[in-house]
Amino acid sequence: MSDLKAQFDAAAAAAQALPKRPDNDTMLQVYSLYKQATAGNVSGKRPGFTDPVGRAKFDAWTKLQGMS
What we know:
By secondary structure, the chain is mostly helical. 62% of the residues lie in helices and 0% in strands. It has helices at residues 2-16, 24-39, 52-62. The longest helix is centred in the middle third of the chain and has 16 residues, at 24-39. The chain is flat.
C-alpha cells in the first residue's frame, strides 16, 4: 500500500510542477480526482449560486461519488 501512496504523492507533485497551467476543465477534473482520492465522497451542502467556482468544484467531485 505504501508503494501506491508513493506513486500518488509523486503524481500529485508532478501535477503541481507542470510547466504550463492546464485549461479550466482539466484543472476541475484533476481537482475532483484529487479530492476523491484524499477525502473520499463529497460531504456538506452544495455552494449557492453566488459561488460559481465552489459550485463547479462540488459538482465535479459529486460525479465521482463512490469511486475508490
